[in-house]
Each structure stands twice: as structure tokens, then as C-alpha cells.
Automatic annotation (TrEMBL):
UniProt organism field: Paenibacillus segetis
Keyword Signal carried by entry: yes
Keyword Signal: yes
PANTHER family given in the database record: D-ALLOSE-BINDING PERIPLASMIC PROTEIN-RELATED, GALACTOFURANOSE-BINDING PROTEIN YTFQ
Name listed for the protein in its UniProt record: LacI family transcriptional regulator
Length: 308
């Protein structure tokens, strides 16, 4: 059985499975779908009853899901917040209901961080830095101006903000890199393709590099680049983030040059934290997920291991 701590710190004993309400932000990408599957599988493994609500990238729907969890008197609420802002009042409501909160994947910008127990997610700034360092190494031999395009993820989301900052901070040390365009494409394949199509119409021949904040947008952009008549991975160097199977397959075809891994398999970590909260344990405020990078060489070895 499980013991849970009430806001007053007393411990009570649960003689039933723990109930976790999880507000998932959407199903916009392969990464997101792998993340959802990992959480569902891990809940089953752990014997935790999971109430799973998909907000289809709507913060308003996330609020509705969270109010539903409060009504259902779940034991713990986990949230993957679509954007960083706007969370203070809903988290005050959860606090008043006495339900502990775990933030997953992306970050919330709130006044009082005591509103959540811990944040489990990647260091997106570091992911951006890894992408920038690769580009600096790749272009070390030339001093000619290098025009690049950036496809950004969901506006106001932690991965988009931080992957942008990490990348720009790293390459701005060399003024040969010229940002031609930096546009949002919301982490989706379709918007990656459509936004890249219009950028190519405007300045196709000047583009030497594409930095996409996730694989789905990179894969969409590759379609647009090939339609336009250029060779992705050769005429335009392509750098992406996530490390999905589809991206590694494109890398093996030579159409993507570098992929920074962003690990979606947060399920087991999340369930561990849920159990520890119910047991009344104290937790670190931040749990960083382990991740690496992929090059043409490692893609070959890794591609068949990818679960997503
Ligand atoms: C990153 C996650 C991002 C992925 C995208 O942790 O929030 O959202 O990089 C996904 O693929 O859409």
C-alpha cells in the first residue's frame, strides 16, 4: 500500500492504486507521441491509475483537464505545459485543492515555484549549444558569409526559446554566420514544409544551413528543399533536434547532417517521482534527462534501437 502526505505533512495510508492526472500538451510530433506512450506504459508498469488528457496544443484545454483532475480528487497532477506563461492561477487552484504537481518536459514561468514539487525535462539551452558547436566545427574551413535559416518550435515554449538562445549564443561569436530568416513552424512536419517553401521562394539560393528546433519540422523542410530542386544535407546543411527514427533514417541517406538527442522516454522517471511524493520523500526541484547527439556514423548504429 502507499502512504501520502497531506499539505500539513501528516501521512495517510492509501489502500488503493495511486491516481495520477496527466495533462499532455498535444500530439504534434513523433517525439510527443513517444513521450505519451512512455508515460502510459510506465503507469501500467507501476500499477498507477493514469487519467490522460491530450490538449492538442491548447493551454485552455490544459486548464480544463487540470480542473477535471481536481474534481476527480486525483493524488498527483503532472503537466507538460505547452507554453511557459499563464500558469499562476490554475496552479493556485491546485494548491488550494492540496494536490502535489509535477512539471514534465517543458517549464512554467510562475511567481511562486513552491506550486510544483519538481520539473523533469531536458536542458534545451544545452541542446541549442550542441547544435551551434556542430555548425562552427562543420564550417571551420571557410570565412565566406554563411546564410542560415531557423525553423522555431511553438512560440513561448521552453524548447523553442532555449534551443534558439543556446544556438544563437554559440554561433554569434563568429560573424560569418548570417541569419537570413527565423520563423515559427510549431514543431509540426506540415508547418515545417510550408514555412520552408515560402522561405525558399524568397531566398533559396542564399541558404547554406537550416537549423530546425525538431525533427518533424526538419523532415517537412526537406520535402520543400527537394521540391525546390536543392539537395538537403549537401546544398543546405541540416541540423535538427530530437533523434527520432525518421530523422536518423534521413541522416543515413545523407539528407540530415546532425541531430541533437532530446529524450522523450520520461515515463519511468515520472512514475518514480509520483511514488516518492506519495511516500512523503523530499525531491530535487529539477531532474535533468540524459541525452546525447547523433552523427552520420552513430545514426547507422542507433537507428534500429530507436523506439520512436
Ligand atoms: C522537447 C519537446 C518538444 C520536442 C518536439 O522536450 O517539448 O516538443 O522537441 C515536441 O518534437 O513537439
Amino acid at each position: 500500500d502507499n502512504s501520502s502526505t497531506t499539505p500539513l505533512g501528516e501521512s495517510i495510508t492509501l489502500s488503493r492504486p495511486i491516481v495520477l492526472g496527466f495533462s499532455q500538451l498535444g500530439s504534434e510530433s513523433d517525439w510527443r507521441n513517444a513521450n505519451s506512450l512512455s508515460i502510459k506504459e510506465a503507469a501500467k508498469e507501476a500499477g498507477i491509475d493514469l487519467l490522460f488528457e491530450n490538449a492538442e496544443q491548447s493551454q485552455k484545454k490544459q486548464f480544463e483537464a487540470i480542473r477535471y483532475f481536481i474534481e476527480q480528487k486525483v493524488d498527483v497532477i503532472a503537466i507538460a505545459p505547452v507554453i511557459q506563461s499563464g500558469w499562476d492561477s490554475i496552479l493556485n487552484e491546485v494548491q488550494e485543492a492540496g494536490i502535489p504537481v509535477i512539471i514534465v518536459d517543458r517549464v512554467v514561468d510562475i511567481e511562486d515555484i513552491s506550486r510544483y514539487v519538481t520539473f523533469i525535462g531536458s536542458d534545451f539551452y544545452e541542446e541549442g549549444r550542441k547544435a551551434g558547436k556542430y555548425l562552427i566545427d562543420k564550417m571551420a574551413g571557410t570565412s565566406d558569409p554563411i546564410g542560415f535559416v531557423e525553423l522555431k518550435g511553438t512560440a513561448g515554449s521552453t524548447p523553442s526559446i532555449e534551443r534558439g538562445n543556446g544556438f544563437q549564443d554559440t554561433i554569434k561569436q563568429q560573424d560569418k554566420f548570417v541569419m537570413l530568416k527565423s520563423q515559427y513552424a510549431d514543431f509540426t512536419h506540415e508547418q515545417g514544409r510550408d514555412v520552408m517553401r515560402s522561405i525558399l521562394q524568397e531566398m533559396g539560393s542564399e541558404i547554406k544551413v537550416l537549423y530546425a528546433h525538431n525533427d518533424d519540422m526538419a523532415l517537412g523542410a526537406i520535402e520543400a528543399i527537394e521540391e525546390y530542386g536543392l539537395e538537403p544535407g549537401k546544398d543546405i546543411i541540416i541540423i535538427s533536434v530530437d533523434g527520432t527514427r525518421k530523422a536518423l533514417e534521413k541522416m543515413i541517406e545523407g539528407k540530415i547532417n546532425f541531430v541533437v538527442e532530446c529524450n522523450p522516454l520520461l515515463g519511468p522517471n515520472l512514475m518514480q517521482v509520483v511514488n516518492e511524493i506519495i511516500e512523503g520523500r523530499t525531491l530535487p526541484k529539477r531532474i535533468v534527462t540524459a541525452e546525447s547527439v547523433f552523427t552520420e556514423v552513430t545514426a547507422e548504429r542507433e537507428v534500429n534501437n530507436r523506439k520512436y
